[in-house]
Batch of 2 targets.
Target 1
Amino acid sequence: MTIESLSQAKVFGGWHKQYTHESRALNCNMRFAIFLPPNATKSNPVPVVYWLSGLTCTDENFMQKAGAFRMAAELGIAIVAPDTSPRGDDVTDDENYDLGKGAGFYLNATQEPWSRHYHMYDYITKELPAIIESNFPVSDVKSISGHSMGGHGAITIGLKNSDQYRSISAFSPISNPMQCPWGQKAFTAYLGTDIKSWKQCDASELLKQAKSPLPILVDQGDADNFLAEQLKPEALIAAAKTHDSAVEVRMQSGYDHSYFFISTFIADHLNFHAKHLFV
Amino acid sequence: MTIESLSQAKVFGGWHKQYTHESRALNCNMRFAIFLPPNATKSNPVPVVYWLSGLTCTDENFMQKAGAFRMAAELGIAIVAPDTSPRGDDVTDDENYDLGKGAGFYLNATQEPWSRHYHMYDYITKELPAIIESNFPVSDVKSISGHSMGGHGAITIGLKNSDQYRSISAFSPISNPMQCPWGQKAFTAYLGTDIKSWKQCDASELLKQAKSPLPILVDQGDADNFLAEQLKPEALIAAAKTHDSAVEVRMQSGYDHSYFFISTFIADHLNFHAKHLFV
């Protein structure tokens, strides 16, 4: 699998790099970014946290705004930030920001015309890790995190692949997409009207079903504009209580949905993942 | 002086806020951003670091990308980020990024048509601090910092107003604008061809003339694309050597001109300013 370098910049003694590559899973060219800590070498491959961004984002939002590299460099953790959907002129789009490009919802679409490109689940769980592990000084030890739509992605992907990840975290996740406008619109377009398939892409439903879920840390601001209508953390909290799982949902007073919020608590999340990545 | 709130977000226990206001100095409406650390209150006014951004920037680049708030919150320092030029439909512009809007060069233009609005020097040294000190829980104790064009701005403004600031710092400053294309183009347009007026806006010239300059910290990446042609730190280093001043210029191996570089060393700069702000 060939990848092509787009940019690189030194940061906190490590490197931020962007690449483009042909994606078989998505049937288009994709861009991703990786942060490599200073101690990452072939003889010292480091673990990886995959970061899934929210609606409208690319690989750049987290890398430029989260302020994550100080702690990632200190802990010796690589971070990979993929794009949020397939891209390109022949990829189906929607006129609104919450469907189509920038809104892949980290699932495999089964409905035409979306099913031609929208296979973000396969991309994140299979194709991208294979690329990362064959091209960079990283190990196959990984955790997954994300924000909003990407928080939904991190929790659903992590719960469905508990052998592949060590831990899950999320900021302001769409916790119960079956019950909110963003999720209902996306699931209807991508998955059709079969509610059984929706349940396989809903963080709260999956957590309810999970027997022994991975450790999960969630931060949610209580001044988040999307809290009541779209994010619905109460469903996730209720699901966590149905069994004795290691799920912590923290309500953070006064914080909103922005990267200012993420930057405040990202060090906590990296330390949480480090506990599970370095055992 | 009335200011109008545009946004606010909690970050590291403090607040990032954006405002708009009518500027008398610039004869247009301006936007600025302020970070207030959690300990800033009327009974505990905190010192301020003014941050001057580079070409093409607004108040947002530093606030979103520098990762400065963790340390600023810990130290108890407010940060103010103004825009980089006057703005608005009736403000003269240039078709290139290095003159006109986004490129005010932190000086008072004397040449038509620029002199109608381009008085960033007066705005930064007089009008904006008066607004900040009358509207927020801050003291009149301040330092000044900036990047590239804003590094030029911080050093020139700091050296010319040593009673007003405690310390100066810069990332990748345009150190000798009289001798580089960016500076020559801007000075010719804004100041005309009188070289005497150019010398009053050139960091290296001002440092050469200074009797007892404020403490200055400069970081410069040696992988910066603009280093040889535009930034010319050697002139500043030579000027620092002409007298026994507290000027430290650090060449940072492998770093470029981006905010990845700034984010790596911004905590050093805030700690440097704190030493002088809290005496």
Target 2
Amino acid sequence: MSPAPTHEFIPPGSRFHALSSPFPMKRGGALHGARIAYETWGTPDAQLGNAVLIVTGLSPDAHAASNAEDPAPGWWEGMLGPGKAIDTDRWFVVCVNSLGSCKGSTGPASIDPATGAPYRLAFPELSIEDIADAAAEVVRGLGIGQLACVIGNSMGGMTALALLARHPGIARSHINISGSARALPFSIAVRSLQREAIRLDPNWNGGEYDDDSYPESGMRIARKLGVITYRSALEWDGRFGRVRLDEQMVPAADDPFGLEFQVESYLEGHARRFVRRYDPNCYLYLSRSMDWFDLAEAGGGDVMAGLARIRVERALAIGANTDILFPVQQQQEVAEGLARGGARAGFIGMDSPQGHDAFLVDLEHFGPAVRDFLDAL
Amino acid sequence: MSPAPTHEFIPPGSRFHALSSPFPMKRGGALHGARIAYETWGTPDAQLGNAVLIVTGLSPDAHAASNAEDPAPGWWEGMLGPGKAIDTDRWFVVCVNSLGSCKGSTGPASIDPATGAPYRLAFPELSIEDIADAAAEVVRGLGIGQLACVIGNSMGGMTALALLARHPGIARSHINISGSARALPFSIAVRSLQREAIRLDPNWNGGEYDDDSYPESGMRIARKLGVITYRSALEWDGRFGRVRLDEQMVPAADDPFGLEFQVESYLEGHARRFVRRYDPNCYLYLSRSMDWFDLAEAGGGDVMAGLARIRVERALAIGANTDILFPVQQQQEVAEGLARGGARAGFIGMDSPQGHDAFLVDLEHFGPAVRDFLDAL
């Protein structure tokens, strides 16, 4: 087996933070010589009091927006930059690539220094808490005593809560976007099925694939199922309706079950832009870490108690009313729990048709909410 | 390739109606020597004026309830029988297995008389309208001049509308349960992905599988994705929460991505009860027929006009507010459209947590609605 091609996934502007070695993992084992990829925007002030940390969803890298090191647009380009909602004229912004990812941080596709070969399934069990601990080391490594704010989207909303729970005082405030304090069975079921599709692909081969035998079918299904649950039926009714593809766009006229409707072509495009650009084992590890996450563990079995033990001065939880994967009731729960802990905490359920992905695309609604919160700090 | 084992899927109490031969198909081609499996309950009155037809969803057979020929419980056992909501002391009830299915009616798993081998993908393209036309032949073959009511669930809701549109006067009334007048992009996307999972299974082999090389992985994923969309997150939160499986119930402790949560075991049970009991090619054909269905074709491009051309005296459309696959707005559309055509038409959106499957399990709500409608006829 040739090593997995981790190098090609790393944004060119990435910097790297070496984690403490050994880096202990919550569920057992430790990493040696591990690193976290991150990027920054803006300028730290003298006291390093203007630092904002962004922790991400499953698939994004650390390149949230263009910057001096990498002018390519990032995955949150409209939200982050000079004069934008997360205003880099005021804030020194750090975005970390999650531990376990394949976008520059150490994960199952990285080389295990003990063997010289990729970890694959020998990577220790990964939890959201490990991702949070690794992010905390980046924050400390940059000399930041206390973040002005930690912002977490989707899986990053879980990571941010774990960070706040495990590292008291690490941030004065928190914005939780389309996140949750624990995984519930609908999203567990979806992610379990995504993982099963990858594992059932004969090319997955117990994690021992390479470029020539990449589990493309499994990753296609996993990604398409993701996109189905990231959006909403309402948006698609208006966007695609029952519109057919042009005949010349249909890939294979002799395929009786091939693409026919625009919505199928949309899913196909998403799959093509994802497979072979994401490592399947990393996907499995990060996906499972979300299922395991339950802030009730920090609250004696009660998720509200777990949230109430977190100390931040101000908090905001935002989501889309059409999100079926991280439903807004979960963001409401986050706001209520943080308020019990003494935070001035608000909740906004946006009427965005774009479902879970709304924070990426409905910047008209999510932008002002984030801007107003940060401006008032 | 050995013939597909269609025989073992047929309920022992099935009767068979020979379709006209050739039986022309809407999208081209014709069937020769085709048949429809059906079952009956109750006794026809002298004028055959008490007949009720049930057309089904994708997977059910004609055995909706126990009867003299087959005492095993049926898939709608609680709804259909003496004194039940569909009261077989009053009604002569007929349930047909859809054309294209593998439960006794002719479909892609049946033997093509022209070749002596299973049709497989040589079966002509199947539409909801063909399923409706075949059901109409059963009704006529039983000597029924006009049905008192046609009841359609899920895909059967589409079939019933096609039947009413193409066979004016065939029924005096109609109950549309969790059905729709056209497929919309969310459900198209889900079904397209289910079909892709089957087609990507190497064992599918362009439809040329047999018992020894059955596309089990693809069918597992298709079924689990179905079950995820048939239910609702709300129900699962209450039913499963984050409860783990007992350790001895976990199939393989050495499988790092194996079953851990109760909800995963629930999906697994559904998959096991489905794979190898449903023919994959039949699944592909019936699934695609739903995507194609659009009653707007009968209304000059306007779905409401298509519905308004249907003539029934009374109609009722029912659904569950938690249905994400056939959302209640689609049942409301059916009621409004049939009302425009002159029917006394009602709509009930039930507060059932069980999503699309509610009509199968929430008989506390769906039963009285059906009973009240039929009692008033």
